[in-house]
Write a structure and sequence with these properties.
The protein is an alpha/beta fold. The chain has helices at 30-45, 68-74, 87-96, 112-119, 145-154, 156-165, 171-176, 189-201, 205-219, 222-237, 240-251, and strands at 6-11, 14-19, 51-56, 61-63, 101-105, 108-110, 122-126, 130-132, 169-170, 182-184. The strands form 2 sheets. It has a 6-stranded mixed beta sheet with strand order 1-2-3-5-7-10. It has a 4-stranded mixed beta sheet with strand order 4-6-8-9. Helix 4 (112-119) crosses helix 5 (145-154) and helix 5 packs across helix 6. The longest helix has 16 residues, at 30-45. Bound molecules: ligand LW2Y6JES. Belongs to the enoyl-CoA hydratase/isomerase family. MenB subfamily.
């Protein structure tokens, strides 16, 4: 597969997968998701890879979720080679790849970009990184992993705060909440992630694989809600409420959702 939206390289025993749409703050479209899935499966299959580092181009954003401009223009997140919108499959592959996935957060991790980092095994953040959900502002949501797994990670009250009020949180706050594992100066981010990957590479791969699946077992029942949430989000996407959210984003004005209460 030819990558347009991501890059893939191997450094020592780490696969470095980089989201590469900096002009759209590394927001994703259907093609981005398809390429990310491909890159993760490539890392899964490779004996040269012991751990995956997921990061993004530039120092402004890790990923700010779905590309709202494309959605506003076309009513979807665009086309992929196989014709599918596979955000659920990306989440699944991050959970199921039997190697540690290290998110290296180089800026804003917002909306669907925040969900992706939450699902990574560990997160290292640059000092200037910002965290939060934004879906309810544009009539979107992830009521599957995005809600339930976030609550498992940081607790119900904090998860509900993040989703219901759509605020942004500093890297330091994220560290205090257990949302990230370590905060480093931006210029040290990739080296720090590589050092973690190097440490993981010294471990028994079978032990890491079994541990990852053991950790996953406890939250596996969330998957049922993931599919239900995807169906309801798809339905919301075809409504006037959704159109108002996306149009307001493009117009740079607050949405008027009052009529949909
Ligand atoms: C991230 C911001 C807080 C950054 O703010 P700031 O630094 O002031 O920069 P801006 O001037 O706002 O932005 C610069 C430039 O980038 C454009 N841009 C920003 N975000 C997006 C985006 N998401 N899509 C397209 N373009 C974007 C912005 O318009 C500017 O362009 P100019 O042309 O220069 O004006 C701030 O930008 C911000 O809050 N962004 C919006 C974040 C957002 O709403 N994200 C979408 C949330 S919904 C989502 O992610 C859907 C996910 C999903 O579909 C899903 C489905 C099923 C299961 C799970 C999921 C899932 O959630 O993963």
């Amino acid at each position: 597969m030819n990558y347009e939206d991501v890059s893939y390289e191997i450094s020592d025993a780490a696969a470095i997968i980089t989201i590469n749409r900096p002009d759209r703050l590394n927001s994703f479209r259907a093609r981005t998701i398809e390429e990310l899935i491909h890159a993760f499966k490539r890392a899964w299959a490779s004996r040269d890879v012991a751990a995956v580092i997921l990061t993004a181009a530039g120092n402004r954003a890790f990923c700010v979720g779905g590309d709202q401009k494309i959605f506003n223009e076309t009513g979807s997140y665009g086309t992929s080679e196989n014709g599918l919108w596979e955000i659920d499959e990306l989440h699944t592959v991050i959970r199921n790849i039997p190697k540690p996935v290290i998110a290296a957060i180089n800026g804003h991790a917002i909306g669907g970009g925040h969900v992706i980092h939450v699902l990574c095994d560990v997160t290292i953040a640059a000092e200037h990184a910002k965290f939060g959900q934004a879906g309810p502002r544009v009539a979107s949501f992830d009521a599957g992993w995005g809600a339930a797994y976030l609550a498992r990670t940081i607790g119900e009250k904090r998860a509900r705060e993040i989703w219901f009020f759509c605020r942004q949180y500093t890297a330091q706050q994220a560290l205090e909440w257990g949302l990230v594992n370590k905060v480093v100066p931006g210029e040290q981010l990739l080296d720090e992630a590589k050092a973690w990957a190097k440490d993981a590479a010294a471990m028994s791969p079978t032990a890491l694989k079994a541990l990852k699946y053991g950790f996953n077992a406890d939250s596996a029942q969330i998957f049922g809600a993931v599919k239900m949430a995807a169906v309801s989000l798809e339905l919301l996407g075809s409504t006037e409420e959704s159109a108002e959210g996306k149009q307001a984003f493009v117009d740079k004005r607050p949405p008027n959702f009052a009529q949909f209460r």
